[in-house]
Amino acid sequence: MCRWLGRGSMFVLSGAQARRLLGAAGARVGGRLVDVGAGDGEVSRRFAHLYDDKLATEISSCMRKALKTKGYTLLDTESWCEGGEFECVCMLNLLDRCAAPRGMLRQARAALASHGVLLLALVLPYKPYVEVTPDHKPTERLPITGVTFEEQVSSFVSFMREMGFELSAWSRAPYLCEGDFAQAYYWLDDSVYVFKPIDIKS
């Protein structure tokens, strides 16, 4: 219904901002990009042209239709990481809205090319809300600690290193999300990161 009503879009980064962030991280362009939990594709479409192939996963049927009209190749939400390596994996405001964020990150680590990057956005402070679970809580909660925005960024980056990702660049950005009947738009603080894969020492 969101697509037919023109609702559900969000703004995270402009194309120019994404290029600067990827450039600051020394990310290669070209190759394959996948946007995991892509929604209507409005976020990643601003920079997806930097890559040769753009793919996506999305559980909403109406959003999948929107993605197809924007030229995305759709992948299965469970097995997307098994179809070859990606130069860029996008997880944009996904980890606080999915039931198993650790599992998502393990999939991203497995799917990334050795020279690839994970482009990730996460609203802070961390307040997960999952539509598909009975209590709207994740089955896996990220171990993010701290009170301030900066403390939570530091905690998250440390956790990501344990998951096999090293921070290459990051930015703080306003996150504009279309709202509901009570409020037209919501303005939140987004932390946006570019991570590169690293080997985890045992």
Automatic annotation (TrEMBL):
SUPFAM superfamilies xref list: S-adenosyl-L-methionine-dependent methyltransferases
UniProt keyword Methyltransferase, yes or no: yes
Presence of the UniProt keyword Transferase in the record: yes
Gene Ontology MF terms in the entry: protein-L-histidine N-pros-methyltransferase activity
BP terms from Gene Ontology: methylation
InterPro entries assigned to the protein according to its UniProt record, in alphabetical order: METL9, SAM-dependent_MTases_sf
Keyword terms of this UniProt record: Methyltransferase, Transferase
Top-level lineage group: Eukaryota
Protein name: Methyltransferase-like protein 9
